[in-house]
Design a protein that fits this description.
Elements: H1 7-19, H2 23-32, H3 34-38, H4 47-60, H5 65-72, H6 77-80, H7 85-101, H8 105-117, H9 125-141, H10 145-161, H11 165-181, H12 185-199, H13 205-221, H14 225-242, H15 247-277, H16 281-319, H17 322-338, H18 342-358, H19 362-381, H20 388-406, H21 412-426, H22 434-447, H23 457-471, H24 475-483, H25 492-510, H26 515-522, H27 526-535
């Protein structure tokens, strides 16, 4: 049976519009082709190819995955045996796209890899480029970043070989994201700049929004929070030009909430440091006024973050996006944790884990378990609950699970954070397993090595573990021996040096990490302060002469 008049021409037009990211043109073509959808089925010539091309456009924003799912029902398994190879491969691509939209990444990957396995049997570089690109997206979502990178590179090369520069630019955005995950921020920015130069001349507002979103995540990792907010706002503006409720809009809202929380934490730390430095009634009064303003800013930021998360949840909830819903719960839990509401934080962590468990999403499951571990450690530190041993064991179990789930991925930062919190739990008062904590610290340090300056919260947690190990080392036994008159055969000068190595890092922390203040407070030379901090591995992480 021949296809509707002009079906081949429609397919050709849709292919070219997608390749060159002429989004509005392609959408108009699809709207005019709706009569062809009513008659679509295996007997129609090129029906499978049309369905596969439609799937690509649905992925780009036309309609929804349910449209493709309904059309696939017209292609039952017995009828597919008679399809030409090109039609059959496009049908498999359509099935994979639906599975990708439903977060069944393993199933989607099987469809795309099947298409790739017949590379030598089909002369369609565009189809193979999309198959490799969608495979990379599946692998990225399950945290297999190294594997995803090779498929992205192949997809980009195939698109460029076809002369489809704008399509290749879309793929470069994913390549940039993968470089970002590996800590190669300069490389990630260079890829984004090239993609931006190409897509800036198109009406691919989603692709353009993705570029701004990627810039925002890089800025956040570098601690440039205000710039990150600007980039995320630009991403939202681009997404809204296409759809006021676009799915990626929710992702940017979560990212904005995350940055607002980090700025609030920074403000809170400034308040705490100012309170510790107050001296005298006049200074106390001035500091109190300043602190009140800062506390109001902290509450404003947290309130804004909660509002952005609620808006994101509305979008994710309508689409039933488990990864997105889980991310909202985790960020909400962190906000509750910052405010001291451990019960609400724990409830959010459980909800997040449930979302991840339903799809066997190891990234969400690991993040949820880390949040639970943090909460249980907070309960221990604040002596909340009648059974400290139970909270300690829960923290231990959650940390162990987080590490196990993170190891199922190639997300080095996720694993590093899990190792840090496992180390903090080992080094706590309940377990006091210094050796195990040190192993966790060493692994986290190795994982967080990067070619770019980063200031995200992983480094603060790492510093906390280092400080805890410093506090829980051999200090107490030494002090006990000295108090008993046991010098271990050491001279008074040697004992003085050991005591300085214990005391100076602590004073340095209390004096806002200012070397000159430590020297003045203890009446010793700045040179000696620097030498001891260097020996402790602390110099260079915020030490200044002022």
């Amino acid at each position: 049976m021949s296809g509707p008049p002009g079906l081949e021409a429609i397919i050709r037009q849709l292919r070219e519009d997608l390749a060159f990211r002429r989004i509005a043109s392609g959408m108009q073509t699809l709207e005019s082709a709706r009569p062809a959808l009513a008659a679509l089925g295996p007997p129609v010539a090129h029906a499978g190819v049309f369905l596969g091309m439609l799937a690509q456009w649905v992925d780009a924003g036309f309609g929804g995955a349910e449209l493709v799912r309904d059309l696939l029902a017209r292609f039952p398994a017995p009828s597919r045996a008679a399809l030409p190879l090109a039609d059959y491969l496009h049908v498999r691509m359509a099935e994979g796209m639906v599975a990708l939209a439903e977060e069944d990444f393993e199933q989607a990957n099987q469809h795309f890899r099947f298409v790739q396995s017949l590379e030598g049997e089909v002369d369609d570089a565009e189809l193979l480029a999309i198959a490799n690109f969608w495979t990379a997206r599946c692998l990225r979502r399950i945290g297999r970043y190294d594997d995803a990178l090779s498929f992205t590179a192949k997809a980009t090369n195939l698109a460029n070989d076809c002369g489809y520069g704008p399509m290749a630019a879309v793929m470069q955005v994913l390549e940039s994201w993968l470089a970002f995950q590996k800590g190669k921020l300069k490389e990630a920015c260079a890829l984004l700049e090239r993609a931006e130069a190409t897509l800036g001349a198109t009406d691919d507002f989603v692709g353009r929004g993705n570029i701004q979103s990627a810039y925002g995540r890089i800025a956040r990792r570098q601690g440039r929070y205000e710039q990150a907010l600007e980039y995320f706002d630009r991403a939202i503006t681009e997404y809204k030009r296409w759809d006021p409720q676009h799915l990626h809009l929710a992702r940017s809202l979560v990212n904005i909430a995350s940055v607002e929380r980090l700025i609030a934490l920074r403000c809170q730390k400034q308040i705490d440091r100012a309170s510790a430095r107050r001296r005298g009634a006049d200074a106390l009064e001035r500091s109190s006024e300043n602190s009140r303003a800062r506390r109001m800013e902290v509450e404003r930021l947290r309130s804004a973050a909660r509002a952005h998360l609620a808006e994101a949840m509305q979008i994710y909830g309508q689409r039933r996006v488990h990864r997105g819903i889980g991310s909202v719960h985790i960020n909400s839990g962190l906000l509750h944790l910052d405010s001291g509401d451990l019960e609400c934080a724990a409830s959010e962590a459980l909800r997040a884990f449930s979302q991840g468990e339903e799809k066997r999403d190891y990234i969400v499951m690991a993040r949820a378990r880390m949040l639970q571990c943090t909460i249980e450690n907070a309960r221990l530190e604040e002596q909340i609950g009648e059974d400290p041993a139970r909270h300690a064991q829960l923290a231990y179990d959650c940390a162990r699970d987080a590490v196990e789930y993170a190891r199922q991925t190639q997300n080095r930062r996720l694993l590093a954070r899990a190792c840090v919190w496992q180390g903090l739990t080992h080094a706590g008062e309940h377990f006091q397993n210094r050796e195990a904590a040190r192993r966790c610290l060493d692994e986290a340090r190795a994982l967080l090595r990067s070619d770019a300056h980063e200031q995200e919260y992983e480094w603060e947690d790492l510093g906390a573990l280092e400080a805890r190990l410093l506090r829980t080392g051999e200090i107490d036994p030494i002090l006990r021996e000295w108090s008993d008159g046991n010098t271990g055969g050491k001279t008074f000068q040697q004992i003085t040096e050991e005591f300085a190595a214990v005391m100076i890092p602590k004073v340095w922390e209390r004096e806002d990490r200012k070397i000159s203040r430590v020297a003045d407070r203890l009446s010793i030379s700045p040179k000696k302060v620097r030498r001891i901090l260097q020996a402790a591995g602390l110099l260079g992480r915020g030490a200044t002469e002022d």
